[in-house]
């Protein structure tokens, strides 16, 4: 069975952010992930991880001004200086919490625009080098256009091709099964094809993005497939509980 990481941005919202670490550990998780830790001090996050014996599976590098609608800076050529600063900040947190994977969000830009493509390439190469100096993998995640309209990296096959062409050993695919099902379908054949370049997997039911125990996808089958494919990374539980987080953990316990 894969190692599951509770997503503390979506799950355990009944608790304050720092208390979610305790709640996840009490519920049986050995690892956690979240979008952004930047409202807390790195030492405070590290303390919760240590106290609870939790591993930090991954988190996202700062995405620009999220409240103002930004969804990453990598494809925005005019924001390269902000991007370099955001990588430095993310690396400070990664060092404090011992994270070995960081997700770089692409931003809102037309994927056919040559200037956006060039900016994205430059940003990814820059980030990959900075992260490799610390032994950290850089994750790139295709996101479906229904949840994030206008997002640059909106196609799993295209992202995989980009990573393969780049040929940098620490650049990996963040394979969010929820997004893949909405964008393309045919999830299991894509897992078979792309697992060697996958650094992180995420799950949720489709289409509701609730617990991975119902609706379009057969998760028990996909978990067995991940084992068959010898996937060694974490599986992030990036779903919005239907009710109380603890009441929705039947799939996890079984
Ligand atoms: O799937 C998602 O939405 C996340 O993994 C993310 O990083 C951006 O929201
Ligand atoms: Mg995701």
CATH superfamily: Divalent-metal-dependent TIM barrel enzymes
Average of per-residue pLDDT values: 98
Structural class: alpha/beta
> Which architecture would the CATH scheme give at its second level?
Alpha-Beta Barrel
CATH class bucket: Alpha Beta
Which fold does the CATH topology refer to?
TIM Barrel
Distance between the termini: 11 Å
Helix content: 25-40%
What binds here, in terms of ligands, is:
the ligand O=C(O)[C@@H](O)C(=O)CO, magnesium ion
Shape: globular
Portion in beta strands: 5-15%
Features:
alpha/beta; TIM Barrel; eight-stranded parallel barrel; 9 helices; binds ligand LCNOYBR7
Can you describe this structure?
By secondary structure, the chain is of the alpha/beta class. It has a single domain (3-247), classed as Alpha-Beta Barrel (TIM Barrel), CATH 3.20.20. The protein has nine helices and eight strands. An eight-stranded parallel beta barrel has the order 1-2-3-4-5-6-7-8, surrounded by five helices. Helix 1 packs parallel to helix 2. The model has no long low-confidence stretch (mean pLDDT 98). It binds ligand LCNOYBR7 and magnesium ion. Magnesium ion is lined by residues 141, 176, 202, 238. One of its GO terms (biological process) is glyoxylate metabolic process. Pfam families: AP_endonuc_2. This is Hydroxypyruvate isomerase family protein. GO terms for molecular function: hydroxypyruvate isomerase activity.
List strands and helices in order, with pairings:
Layout: E1 3-7, H1 17-26, E2 31-34, H2 42-52, E3 55-60, H3 80-97, E4 101-103, H4 114-132, E5 137-140, H5 156-166, E6 171-176, H6 177-183, H7 187-194, E7 198-203, H8 219-228, E8 234-237, H9 250-253
Parallel strand pairs: 1-2, 1-8, 2-3, 3-4, 4-5, 5-6, 6-7, 7-8
Helix pairs in contact: 1-2, 2-3, 3-4
The structure holds the ligand O=C(O)[C@@H](O)C(=O)CO and magnesium ion.
């Amino acid at each position: 069975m894969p190692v599951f990481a509770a997503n503390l941005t979506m799950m355990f919202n009944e608790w304050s952010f720092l208390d979610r670490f305790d709640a996840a550990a009490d519920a049986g998780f050995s690892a956690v992930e979240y979008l952004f830790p930047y409202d807390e001090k790195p030492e405070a996050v590290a303390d919760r991880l240590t106290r609870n014996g939790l591993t930090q599976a991954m988190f996202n590098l700062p995405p620009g001004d999220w409240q103002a609608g930004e969804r990453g800076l990598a494809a925005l050529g005019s924001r390269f200086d902000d991007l370099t600063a955001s990588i430095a900040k993310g690396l400070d947190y990664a060092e404090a919490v011992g994270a070995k994977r960081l997700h770089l969000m692409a931003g809102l830009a037309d994927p056919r625009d040559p200037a956006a493509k060039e900016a994205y390439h430059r940003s990814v190469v820059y980030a990959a080098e900075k992260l490799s100096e610390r032994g950290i993998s850089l994750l790139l995640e295709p996101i479906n256009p229904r949840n994030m309209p206008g997002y640059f990296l909106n196609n799993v096959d295209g992202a995989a091709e980009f990573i393969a062409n780049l040929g940098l050993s620490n650049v990996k695919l963040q394979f969010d099964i929820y997004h893949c099902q909405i964008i393309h379908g045919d999830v299991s054949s894509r897992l078979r094809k792309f697992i060697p370049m996958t650094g992180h997997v995420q799950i949720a039911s489709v289409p509701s993005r609730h617990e991975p125990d119902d609706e379009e996808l057969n998760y028990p089958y996909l978990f067995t497939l991940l084992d068959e494919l010898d996937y060694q990374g974490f599986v992030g539980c990036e779903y919005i509980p239907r009710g109380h987080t603890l009441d929705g953990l039947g799939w996890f316990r079984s």
